[in-house]
């Protein structure tokens, strides 16, 4: 049973965003943290960020009193930590000093979130209103912090913040749909489904604005490196040492932690929409069993299907057993019964650890009561031979059910549109950039070449928002791109197959209307 939205730290107006703008300054005791963040870019440029952080004293987190203060502390410590590890002008560090690591872990534990940069830090808790007396709107938002000190990075976060601002409408409509089903009130269910659909339309329109003020080149080479975590990361193959937190293992070796970095998949809003609409996602290349039969790409026999399922579950059991008890980076075992093995997408469960604890709890509880699709299917099971209604009442019921099916399918269609737009953005902002022969993102020459981007290419391509059409079929790519590179997300997923499958899985839930 769902609790009140307030119990999950969800606002009926702003959704998963705080109902009031995030705190902009901690109490004076934490001024050393604030001063470092104030001077972040100057210290980075001077090559003194790490040495300045190393001089910090370990501050007591018990003096943080409010949820807003804990959120602000998490943003500061996440920013300093990722600046320390991924410092553009230094070698990557596999150690985080205790002055950051210890308070960061304590703050994270309080929030029920992994100590790593995430969607919550850069999107949910990283904004302010330019004009406090004006409404929440993309054109009235500014960021509190960016790694690159560019307008592009601010816009990248703020577009997503604006999308999250629609969460209040979406969650309220989802709750209304659940209540309507409980009361078997199809008219209210229809209204709720139309509200959900119209909200996703607004989300899509906002997402489409990403290209207006965020240059793909700037994002990929100057912003994205700082959003990486330390799992599935070639430059930190063992992960990161949180000094002063975990100590050493039985052999006297320091303990490393592994966490995935920030990603759009960590949006509780998008996961909530999936759950409410009963959209199910599976490991890339895997399809669920249907009526006892296994449907998997690249698996041609029942024996290979069973071997895969056994190997899949064993891998996750071993992963859980090997995790350090202090490490929040755990994976959930997937549900199964004697007739089918339902393998839910492990990455989507895993990244819930990068959500605040109460938001994660909401998704878990929502999954227990969300039955919109099953209820609608039950309403389409119409038998004229056993109905007790009059012909006119029968026709009215059929028409009402037809409208509900159409409204539900339109929600799926808008979610498909969202995933298509997201896929296009990923193609332009990540895949094409990664496949260009430009060296690595920590090269100083890459930083300065941003000044003279026109010298990089004599043809129009994805180096400026003015030169890009956000459509994968029309984007021009130089022949010098390296198409053999497998592009992975900050969470280690193979991006394009992962996102395409999520889009396909969305429309797979479409209900065939028996009355048409």
TrEMBL record:
GO molecular function: heme binding; indoleamine 2,3-dioxygenase activity; metal ion binding
One GO process term, biological-process aspect: L-tryptophan catabolic process to kynurenine
Region (Disordered): 313-336
Cited Pfam families: IDO
Binding positions (heme b): 422
InterPro entries linked to this entry: Indolamine_dOase, Trp/Indoleamine_2_3_dOase-like
UniProt feature, compositional bias: Low complexity: 313-329
Keyword Mitochondrion attributed: no
An annotated GO cellular component: cytoplasm
Keyword set, alphabetical order: Dioxygenase, Heme, Iron, Metal-binding, Oxidoreductase
Family under the similarity heading: Belongs to the indoleamine 2,3-dioxygenase family.
Protein name: Indoleamine 2,3-dioxygenase
């Amino acid at each position: 049973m769902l609790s009140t939205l307030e119990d999950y730290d969800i606002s009926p107006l702003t959704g998963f965003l705080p109902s009031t703008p995030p705190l902009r300054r901690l109490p004076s005791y934490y001024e050393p943290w604030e001063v470092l963040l104030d001077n972040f870019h100057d210290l980075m440029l001077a090559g003194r960020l790490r040495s300045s952080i190393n001089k910090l004293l370990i501050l007591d987190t018990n003096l943080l009193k409010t949820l807003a203060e804990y959120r602000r502390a998490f943003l500061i410590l996440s920013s300093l930590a990722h600046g320390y590890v991924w410092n553009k002008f230094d070698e990557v560090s596999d150690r985080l000093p205790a002055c950051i690591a210890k308070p960061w872990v304590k703050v994270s534990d309080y929030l029920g979130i992994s100590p790593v940069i995430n969607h919550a830090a850069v999107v949910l808790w990283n904004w302010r209103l330019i004009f406090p007396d004006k409404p929440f709107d993309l054109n009235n938002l500014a960021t509190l912090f960016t790694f690159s000190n560019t307008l592009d990075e601010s816009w990248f976060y703020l577009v997503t913040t604006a999308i999250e601002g629609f969460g209040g409408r979406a969650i309220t409509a989802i709750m209304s749909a659940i209540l309507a089903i409980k009361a078997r009130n199809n008219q209210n269910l229809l209204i709720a489904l139309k509200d959900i659909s119209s909200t996703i339309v607004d989300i899509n329109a906002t997402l489409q604005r990403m290209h207006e003020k965020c240059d793909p080149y700037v994002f990929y080479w100057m912003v994205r490196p700082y959003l990486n975590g330390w799992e599935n990361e070639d430059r930190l193959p063992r992960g990161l040492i949180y000094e002063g937190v975990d100590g050493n293992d039985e052999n006297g070796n320091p303990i490393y932690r592994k966490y995935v970095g920030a990603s759009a998949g960590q949006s509780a809003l998008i996961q909530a929409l999936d759950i409410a609409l009963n959209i199910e996602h599976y490991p890339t290349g895997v399809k669920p069993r249907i009526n006892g039969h296994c449907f998997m790409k690249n698996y041609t026999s029942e024996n290979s299907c069973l071997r895969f399922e056994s190997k899949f579950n064993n891998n996750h059991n071993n992963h859980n057993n090997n995790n350090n008890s202090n490490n929040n980076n755990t994976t959930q075992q997937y549900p199964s019964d004697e007739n089918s093995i339902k393998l839910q997408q492990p990455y989507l469960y895993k990244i819930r650890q990068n959500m605040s604890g109460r938001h994660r709890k909401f998704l878990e509880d929502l999954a227990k009561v969300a039955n919109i699709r099953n209820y609608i299917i039950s309403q389409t099971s119409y038998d004229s031979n056993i109905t007790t209604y009059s012909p006119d009442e029968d026709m009215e019921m059929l028409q009402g059910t037809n409208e509900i099916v159409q409204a539900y399918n339109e929600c799926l269609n808008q979610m498909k549109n969202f995933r298509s737009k997201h896929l296009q953005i990923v193609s332009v902002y990540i895949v094409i950039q990664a496949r260009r022969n430009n060296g690595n993102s920590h090269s100083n020459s890459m930083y300065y070449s941003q000044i003279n981007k026109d010298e990089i290419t004599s043809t129009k391509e994805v180096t400026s928002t003015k030169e890009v059409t956000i459509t994968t079929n029309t984007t021009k790519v130089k022949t010098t791109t390296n198409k053999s590179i497998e592009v992975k997300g900050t969470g280690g997923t193979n991006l394009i197959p992962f996102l395409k499958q999520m889009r396909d899985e969305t429309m797979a839930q479409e209900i065939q209307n028996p009355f048409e």
